[in-house]
Amino acid sequence: MAAAGADTERRQIDFRAEGEVGEYFKKLVFPAIIVLLLILLLGYAGWTYGFRFLIPRLMASSFFIAGMLIGAVLQLILLIIFTRWRFYNHVLSRSIRANEKTLQEIDRIAREAADRLAMRPPGVYVVQDPQINAYALGFRRKVIVLNTGLIDVTSDDELKFIIGHELAHVKYGWSVPVKIFGLTIKLPLLLSSQHREYTCDRGGLIACRNLNAAILVLARLALGKRLADKVDIESMYKDKDEVERDRMSKISEFIATHPPIKNRVYQLRQFHESELYHKLIR
Taking every annotated instance into account, which residue ranges of this chain make up the domain Peptidase M48 (predicted)? Predict the structure, then answer.
């Protein structure tokens, strides 16, 4: 009974990285500035030429412009959906699903990772591809795809970190929870979120429970297998000063889809020492 209670408590714990909401709104600043400039421009034109002259002409063309914009947006959405659906089916058609009879070891690792994240394991597929990569696919039916190039160079713990990372993507989906007047509203994650990658790295670490294996995976993403195996994992980006000295420009880091590897390594170390991590793995 006590074990069941502990499992329930663990299932209710959130390992989302702090700062995701702040980053989300920062990335909305630029579009907001563009909209504000357009409003100011229209206001200036109205003030200069007279609103009686300007407004009828704007209204006459507004329906045409609105129709064009709505049509373009709908076409873009349909194109994105079709492209993703086509890619989803293309990948699954040339891959093999891991299960208890086929690719049993990968199936076992995936189930252990899902259990440690208190999730139902989604389908895990293996596709012939030399690139060191893995990704989550799908809308309602989400799956995880592992390239053979990745499996060939990773140990069980390293693979568990990667699967845990992708499971965290599945767990949190493509939305950001924002509290407004005490209510939690999920806003769509329209822009890439670096903090989401920190969250998913946390999921990978909870799944594998091996900090060195997790860091080695990140090192291989940056350097490849041969060079990464020569890196001193124990001391790699262990203190904040080293991370700051090796920093790119803030703008470059801000607009990138993924945070720099050094930041991910440092954040993993910080999470590994945190009370939350030790509470989750009990």
Answer: 103-172, 189-270
